[in-house]
Amino acid sequence: MTFRVSFQFFTKCYSNVVIKELSNNTIIAKNWLNQLNISSIPKNLLKERFDRSSGPGGQNVNKLNTKCTLSLPHVSGCDWIPQEVRKQLVNGSFRYYKKTTDMILVQADETRSREDNRMACKTKLINEIKKHCTFQNVTRADKMKKWERSKNKDNELRIQKKKTAK
After folding, report:
1. Model pTM greater than 0.85?
2. Could you give the domains of the chain?
């Protein structure tokens, strides 16, 4: 699908340029990803568990359960995450996704504090999701034509070299 746009900053050079349209799901997913932060994660979906830590903290880590393990079960059916993002997390190589149990599992034991480790887990989760998920940008039609011409020219040169080599 294509549509015509004439943005104010395109007006001088590119008015009424044909631009490839992004799908509605992709736009929703990009916006969701941009707005994703610690406070936007629904607390009722995450399961927290605290265990004995092996990180820094001396005797404190031997006595108290400070290591935080966050799990987000049923990722493939989770409505909180947009469909485009879910596809990338489940089908890609997202390091915290466990395919056998269909869950995301994040652990942190960097500090002596439970709260700090809980925040570290959430921060890890958000940063990894943002790092892992990528979306294609809108490409102008004139750029696409330019690259197509370049590709065709290179292809013709390659064929010419093959013919002369025989």
Report:
1. no
2. 2-143 (3.30.160.20)
